[in-house]
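Milestone M4 deliverable, item 7.
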Amino acid sequence: MQRSYRMIAVQSRPLKRERTAAETTAAFLASGFPHDHLPTPVSPSLVQSERRAMKACRPLLLVGFVNVAAVAACAEPAPEPTRSPDPPAGIESALLPGFIIRGEPQSRRSLTTRMAELGVPGVSVAVLIDGEIGWARGYGLADVESRRPVTGNTLFQAASISKPVAALAALQLVEEGRVDLDADVNTYLKRWRVPANEWTAEAPVTLRGLLTHRAGLSVSGFPGYGPDAAVPDATGVLDGHGNTDPVRVVMTPGERWRYSGGGYTVMQQLVTDVRGEPFAAVLRKHVLDPIGMIRSTYEQPIPDGRRDDIAKGYRPDGEAVIGGWHTYPEQAAAGLWTTPSELALYAREVQRAWRGESALVITEALAREMLTPDEDSWGLGPGISEDGERFRHGGSNQGFRSTFTAYIYGDDGVFVMTNSDSGSDLAREIAITVADAYGWSGPRPREFVPVDLAAEVRGRYVGTYVVAERGIEFEVSLEERGLALSWRGDGAVLWALNDSTYFDVEDGREVRFSTDEDGIALVLGTLRAPRAGSGPSR
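Output delivered:
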């Protein structure tokens, strides 16, 4: 079902009075929903009928004027559709799969069944409908040992979803004229500077490059620090004094996309230096409180007084992360503690700013630039869907997986947080099912159409692939129909989509084989593993 939008004519609407944090929170979060959900969910059939009535109006409202008579004619309600599951019950009982394989059978399973199958102790979900929470609910356990349940107030580590929220703090400096998006960041850095090398001689590292992952910087992600580990500050992380390599420019800035949590740590240091305050305090004052994210925090480690309702993280084997969770001094990249409902506040503020309805953090012009995708479908913080309709991000910390998708042209979104390394598939399935239930354009299950390749074609990728910085080795061998991939005692069967791209038949993850003058490399998400002993490919 194709989504229809209730669009507005941006130029014809005055800027609304900015709500205080207290007003925003009172109106949006109700009483903190101690019973795991908000009042009766908004009817998806009503939402769909209203949006269908406005679909024909969209071309009129996208232009710089409003034809009042035409819009009034469009405002007549459409017949209510017959297909409408009753969230959350319909969603809870029949999750859509994250992907389908053409020609292969598929089934829908309940949320609790999928939690058990994947070994996910707890999950929290919030759904934004027309700018308000339609429903929000916790499932399962925040702490398996104590049997403490997940509630709507339970804090989870947002992991990389920290990035788009933190990006607002940097963009606010741009709004204030204190930082130029396209200037050399060394202009603003004080306690640490991007080291010069052959790559920076060709182009400078800019804030735009940091936010869009095009700064050419190393270190894709961070493992965090256990309870007994010495934790460096941000400058120590940047210079490699912790458990990751130094953050350095490793290709020409601006040349191509390379996901870099290290780049966001540079941004963190820039914000800290320009504001002259600790990063968590800056985010509290300039982003979280104005938006109303009063329970959320970038404090690392999280203070003892905030630990009453925190989800513990769990590994794939079901064991709790030692200490319950890791500490992340890379606050901008991975350090946010929050709830799905407060992430919805972030998304709603971005949506309102994009339409010129709010300027609590940034104004319309910068919000529109933030959500304008570059050639790699990335905005200034969030990723942008291929159709340009949604902004989104996922997160992966030790023991936590999360995802969100929100609509640029509407007031909707879905936000899912889990306390398990095995939670990615569940989070995506929930998001897909919610979108389907409300008739949104996405996300949708991905359809794979496998192709049969000769053994000699597949065989060119057989070998050992190494991610040196993480100590990971992948073994690739031939399998009856495709390839077999194994690592650290785990394994997967890969079927081909074309001669260089494969997918895992169990979880749908895509694996690419990249070939250049240095040989062949296996690419899995943000990981790139060159083949051991690989020279130029034959």
